[in-house]
Amino acid sequence: MLSYDKPVSVTTSPSSAASMAATLSTMSTNPKPIKTTVGPVTSNNTIAKTDGQPAPRHHHIWLVTGPAGSGKSTVAKHLSKSLDLPYIEGDEYHPQANIDKMANGIPLTDADRWDWLTALREESLQQLASGAEGVVLTCSALKRKYRDVIRVAPYYSHDVVLHFIYLHAPENVLLERVGLRQGHYMGANMVHSQFSILEPPTAEETDVIGVDVSGPMEEIMREALDKVLKKIDEVAAS
């Protein structure tokens, strides 16, 4: 049976100053990847040719992930433009029922997410099948099992290399950012809910690139692009 995520109240009791201090301390913790070492998902497939010219040995899927307010769309659009790759906005693939839930502060369940995650994986592969050398997409992918749904992509196409770009920052930083947004269905109350179920990548998830997004967005975008370019070189040399 699937497990369901329940809303988590952000109200703290005024009866205990110690409880309040503990809550604030937790919110200021940056959920960094857990001893993550970056490494490629390798492939030994034969290189196809197009019009007599060798096709790229690898086709990269760059999945920009993290909780609400981490800057997924901003970073992903920057990578898409810099690398000249198609961009897939994950939020646009949510069914209306999911959007209505989140707009009303109701966390999505595992069951709500499966079809959405599969749709993102299939759209990424379709972009590659249509001739794109790579693709950049956004998806919160808060739990490892959600990331594992996307990890199936290289099994279908063995020249595909999948990377997660995990954007992380303390909860209070992301709460402030989301509070400043206007016209977005993801409210500030959803940040705490997402942190309550967040599973930061572990050392076993070697396809993860971590980026601390606590600083200015210009620095974040530059760091993300630098790490992506470095990873492209590493995979090409493998």
Key phrases:
alpha/beta; two-stranded antiparallel ribbon; 7 strands; globular
Q: Could you walk me through the main structural features you see in this protein, from its secondary elements to its overall organization?
A:
The chain is α/β, with parallel strands linked by helices and 238 residues long. The chain has helices spanning 17-27, 72-83, 96-103, 110-129, 144-150, 153-156, 171-180, 189-197, 217-237; strands at 49-50, 53-54, 59-65, 87-88, 134-138, 160-168, 208-212. It has a 5-stranded parallel sheet with strand order 4-5-3-6-7, with helices on both faces. The chain has a two-stranded antiparallel ribbon with strand order 1-2. Helix 2 packs across helix 9 and helix 7 runs antiparallel to helix 8. The longest helix has 21 residues, at 217-237. The N and C termini lie far apart (41 Å).
Please indicate the percent range of residues in DSSP E strands (runs of 2 or more).
5-15%
Largest sheet: 5 strands, parallel
Measured between the Cα atoms of the first and last residue, the distance is 41 Å
Number of helices: 9
Helical residue percent band: 40-55%
Radius of gyration: 19 Å
Question: Could you name the ranges where pLDDT drops below 50 across 5 or more consecutive residues?
Answer: 1-17, 36-52
Tally of strands: 7
Give the overall shape, derived from the CA principal axes: globular
Class by alpha and beta content: alpha/beta
Along the chain, the helix and strand elements come as HEEEHEHHEHHEHHEH
Rounded average pLDDT: 81
**Order of neighbouring strands in the sheet with most strands:** 4-5-3-6-7
